[in-house]
Structure formats: C-alpha cells, structure tokens
From TrEMBL:
<dbReference type="InterPro" id="IPR045096">
    <property type="entry name" value="EDR2-like"/>
</dbReference>
<dbReference type="InterPro" id="IPR002913">
    <property type="entry name" value="START_lipid-bd_dom"/>
</dbReference>
<dbReference type="InterPro" id="IPR018247">
    <property type="entry name" value="EF_Hand_1_Ca_BS"/>
</dbReference>
<dbReference type="Pfam" id="PF01852">
    <property type="entry name" value="START"/>
</dbReference>
<feature type="domain" description="START">
    <location>
        <begin position="243"/>
        <end position="407"/>
    </location>
</feature>
<feature type="region of interest" description="Disordered">
    <location>
        <begin position="1"/>
        <end position="46"/>
    </location>
</feature>
<dbReference type="GO" id="GO:0008289">
    <property type="term" value="F:lipid binding"/>
</dbReference>
<dbReference type="InterPro" id="IPR023393">
    <property type="entry name" value="START-like_dom_sf"/>
</dbReference>
<dbReference type="InterPro" id="IPR009769">
    <property type="entry name" value="EDR2_C"/>
</dbReference>
<dbReference type="Pfam" id="PF07059">
    <property type="entry name" value="EDR2_C"/>
</dbReference>
<feature type="compositionally biased region" description="Low complexity">
    <location>
        <begin position="14"/>
        <end position="36"/>
    </location>
</feature>
<protein>
    <recommendedName>
        <fullName>START domain-containing protein</fullName>
    </recommendedName>
</protein>
Amino acid sequence: MDVTTTPPVKRVVAGATAAPDGSSSDTSSGGAAARNGGHHHRRSSSLGGENHPFFEYFGWVYHLGVNTIGHEYCHLRFLFIKGKYMEMYKRDPHENPGIKPIRKGVIGHTLMIEEAGRQKVNHGDIYVIRFYNRLDETKKGQIACATAGEARKWMEAFDHAKQQAEYEISRGVSARNKLNMETEIDLEAHRPRVRRYASGLKRLIKIGQGPESLLRQSSDLGGSVGDGYFEGDVGDAVEAHQWKCVRTVNGVRIFEDVSDSKSGRGRGVLVKSVGVVDASSDTVFEVILNLDRHRRYEWDMLTGDLELVDSYDGHYDVVHGTYDPKYLTRWQSKRDFVFSRQWFCGQDGTYTILQIPAIHKKRPPRNGYRRTKISPSTWEVRSLNMPMGSSGAKCLVTQMLEIHSSGWCRWKKNSSSKFEKTIHYALLSQVSSLKEYIGANPALKVESSTMVVQSKHSNASSSSGDYEDIDVQDQFYDAIAAASSSSEDEDSDDDGELDKKDMKVKLKNVSWAITSLALKRTSGQDANKELDSSVAPITIDPSQFHGSMQQERDGIDSNCWSSPSGKGFMIRGKTYLKDNAKIIGGDPLLKLIAVDWLKADKAADRISLHPKCLVQSDAGKKLPFILVFNLQVPAKPNYNLVLYYACSRPVNKDSLLGKFVDGTDAYRDSRFKLIPSIVEGYWMVKRAVGTKACLLGKAVTCRYLRQDNFLEIDVDIGSSSVARSVIGLVLGYVTSLVVDLGILIEAKEEGELPEYVLGTVQLNCIRLDSAVALEVVQGSA
C-alpha cells in the first residue's frame, strides 16, 4: 500500500489586538506571511473572539479503526478543523462542493493527544496519533500520517483546536454550558448499525480494491515553522559536558568531552560529530530511520545492510545488520551485529534516536559471521531558525558515541593514525555522509516552509457563525474511532461558502491567549509577590515532617533527597518574548519538606487523602499551602515519587501561582512545567532524558485535586508511550543516577516575566527495593 498523505494546510482568520501604543497589531502568523509577500486579511471571528486568531486546518490523513465485523482498516480521509470543530470527509470538499461530512464533532478541552510512533501497514510505515478523553479513556481513536513531520503538524492543529475550546470556557458561564451540552452527546448513538452489515461489507471490499489509492496525493511535508518556535541549542538545565573541537572532516566538526566529570563512561571517551544539513529535521529523521538497503547504500558505509527483527510500541525496534570489514581493515571475515533503536520527538521538535547493542532470540550468532557489538550511540536532529526571507530549511545533526579505543588520542595528534580504519570513525563519519547524500538529492530538500500553498479564508458572512448554531450530533472521539463504512452515516451539515485566495502562510506555534483575562502587570514577575505579604510568615519546622525517603545529611548519602538552589536551571527572562533570552534561576519559592517513595499494585492517585499522609497530619493542616507533586512511575510494581512543597504564607490569589492553584485543569495543563537534568549517570540516559523544559499537561495525563490547604498534581507517566519508554531506560540505571528536577509555572505574558523556580529536588541513587508499600485509598474530592 502506498502510504503517502499530505500534511495539514493551515489558514488563519485573525483578530486585531491593541499594541502598547494604542495601535493595532497582528497577532497571527499571517503577519509573517504578509511580510513574505503573501496576502493577509485580518478580521474578527465570532468564534475566536475579538482578540483571538481563528485557525483552520485541512488535509489528508489515514483513519485507523475496527469495522463492524472486527477487522482493522486504514482508510484515507480528508480532515477539516475549524476552530474547535472537526469534520471528516471521504473526498476533498474544496474540489467537491456540496459534499457532506461523514463525521463531525467537537474537539473538547479534555482531549489528550499522544504520538503513538511508527506502525507498519501493508508494507508501508505510517506515524500514528492517538486521541483519548482524559476523563474517560474509553473514548479514543487513531489517525495516521505518512511522515513524522506531518504527524507533528497535525498534533499542533488539534492542540490549537483544543485551546480554542479552553478559551471559550474562560469566556464565561454561557460558553461553558454550551460546551458541556456538546460534550454530553451520546457517543454510542451513531455507531454503525447491525442492519447495515451487508451493504457495509460490500463497500469495504470495494474501497480496498482501489478508490483510496486514486485519492492519494504526494506529500509536501506541510506548513513551515515560525521564528522563535525552537528555543535554541542550549537546554533548560546546566549540563556538565565541555566539548572541544578536535578535528574537522568534510565540513563536519568532531568534538571530545574534556570535562572533569567522567561519571557514566568508565574508561571510555565521549565524542560527537556535528554538522548542518540543508533539509528539515523531519526529512533527516526519516532518512536515518529508513532501513531501505538501496537508500542506505548511498550514505551509510557501515550499517547499510539492516533488517527489522522486531518492533514494539511504535518508538522502539530491534534491527540486525551485517558489514564487510574489508572497507575498514585487512580482515576478511564478515561481521554482524544486533542493536535496538529507541526514538522520540521532544516538545521543541527535536528528534532523538538512541542506539544500544542488543541480544535477540530471533538473531542468534550465525555461521560465517563474527558477532560484533556496535558502540552505543545517539542521534539528535534539531531544526535551525532561519532568517526572515531565507529559502530552504536547515537542521543541526549530532551523533554522539562512547569510544573505548586507545587509538583515539593518537588520532587527534596524527592524521595518519589507524583510527580512521575503525568502526568508531565510520560511525562518526555518518554525519558527513548524510550531509552529502541529502545535498546530492534535491528532492529531499524541497520543503513547504518556503512553498506557496493554496490557502482559503472563510467568507465573513458565513464563517464561524454557522458553526456556533450547529446542532453537533457527533463527538470528536466518535468521529475518529467509529467505522464509516456506510453512506447512511453521512450526517448532513451546512458548509459556509469559501472564497479562494492565494497567500503564503507561515506556520507559527502561536501561544494562545487563553489566560489573557488574567491581571496585567506593568512590572516584572516578583516571586515574593506570589505570597500574601499582609500575613505574617510561619516557621516551618522540617523535623515535624517525615517521608519514606530520607533527606541527605552529610553529602555522601545515597537513596536520599536534597533541595538544591535553582541555579542549575535556565528560566525565561524579562525580555524572553522579544529575544528568547533565558536567565539562571534563583532560590525556589516553595520549600521541599518531605519525599515519599512508594509502591503499589496500581497507580495511586489522591495521595493527599491517605490518612497517613503528612498533609493530613496536625502539622500539615497548619501550613498555609502545600503543593503535592505525585509522579506515577509505571513498572512492576508501580512506583510513586511524591514531593511535598510548602510555603510560609498564604498564596496571593491574584498572583500567577494563585491563578494556577485555583484555576481550571486546562489552565494548569498549559502552564505546569518540569525541567529534568541528570547530574551524574550514564551518558546515554542523559541524552534520553535531556534538559529541555516539558509542559507536563501536554505530554502526559495530569489529574488535579484541590482541597483545603493543598493542591495535588498526579502525573501519569504511563499515559504516554514515549514517556514509558524513557522511564524504562532510566529505571535500569536509577541506582547510579543523581537527578535534578525543577518545577515552575510557565510565564506566557510580559507581565508574568521573568519566571521563577517554584520548587526543586535532587534524587541521589534511588533504590527500587526501598519503596514503601502503600494501601491505595480512593478518597472523594
């Protein structure tokens, strides 16, 4: 099956917002488009609100599901997202005026979006996006795209639609009631009927024989990335690596880690090669992951002969490879190897691929080959921001590996060293080969980031107003998860007429002003203003609070915790919205008073309601406010890392923290941020965890419990396949890791800057067997 689809095309109907000087400024990506020579029309949308841009996305995707007789299917469908509404068609409605959607519904604020990784369908690889309702995970569905880049852009599209629903909730009671009425529609009412079984089966057979292939269009990798979308090369935590360039080969720099800290490396040397490739990160990621022998022969001299042995959750597979060492040495015996690949895309769009030697029962050592263990290595592919008006896309490609060869030092001093005949050098040269391969194939460099796309604006007389009065008959999840094998499922709907207009659209990761109703400040955010200064502070006595994990005492303890300063974290500075500048964090606002390391048969929510929890103790009830951060770690058994933060004064309700504590779950999801950092440990785990800040509510399912003097945040790491994969690697090395975590509330408006560190913790070499059993008590809010 040909698995080529097209990414979403975005059109923007933007409102005007008042600039500080009283003039009108464009808040949408259309402003950038106009500067590039496109035509931008600015108007207010009744759906988006006077000061909020209104987005529309449309394009081809694959709809995955199970039909009425239990068979899995993969149908090509045209999705149209307008505001918070979604419609699904069998044909492009722009080319077929008057066609009715087969499904339509609301993308609610409780929608959770997860990248489910790669799957093989009819001999082709597709990238799956999974949806579910965080309040009812039985409501779920899947769509898929041909490339990882397309999947990422569709995830942005759905996220914008979700934010539109969140904004409408913030407008008031009437909007909330309308959304509640829409989301309470009976999801089972429009499932395919049993009486349609015969005609539906015939139609499925007919579709499978050809009509879908006629609808397929070539992929152009979809919308571009706006300025400032990526936050730069550095992470949000201070790293210990100190890289020194030791050689430049074919335009690619080769570095050695010369830092004093050698933890996690044994006697080896950590090296990396870095090069700029003239293509998007999506394209480079696809090339690296592709196992097609004919393509790999063009750039990969070492691991060109690869075959897939096993594939797991869409983000993890095992491959077997062979190579002939005559290209490297005089030895003639052929070699083979087995290694696992684990990959994921961060919230900043950076791709990471981990490659680790492996053993698999399907590929035991074979006669005539010498089994070789390939050194652990990582790929990191990050898009580079391009100056306004420049053409093409560029990305920074980094390959890092650990070298145990004694010839490394001699090679640095002597270019004729035998190191150039080793596997390590062949691996380091892959970046250079990749750069030349893509440069010699112009088709790989064609990106729609500079492409003029045919885009359309909604007619002002029939745009979002039509959607406001729609009697929405299907919920979003019904549209994604239900089979659409019968024409009787095509619900009627009146589409507004569309005027075709040519324009250049520059896709930008717009930060929605859901929280623009918050109090505007004229000065920078002061952490001390987060607490009520009119109330005298109380003295927090740490001896009154005890968790199951001990606090570090003499600096050499293990299996313990401490609370470092915020100097190890980079946070948004006062001018971040203008120049993306970050500053070193200060002391945390909240005091870490205890840590619990617990285990249970299933993930434990609402720890604060447990009668033995310190929140329920007499001392805990006297504290003005406690933030309970409950990290649920999926394993056998399940673990809970529970952090208790307290403050000496009540929280100022008009502050950023106050709005977070008493805000909606949607607001909290869009603001709560975690910065991880592996201070000491195996370098591969460091690369897997990274140092970039993560909005937890957008990566995993977060549940909140607000009662009395506390707020509990339950973070379900197991709700994301990517997070499960990473935490699985971390648990394998956890007894030798020193981990720093910083939590904060993301500042999105100028009056909220600079950010401040809410709380920190350092976990020193945790032992899994030290977890204390917890009897899960399900309290009621």
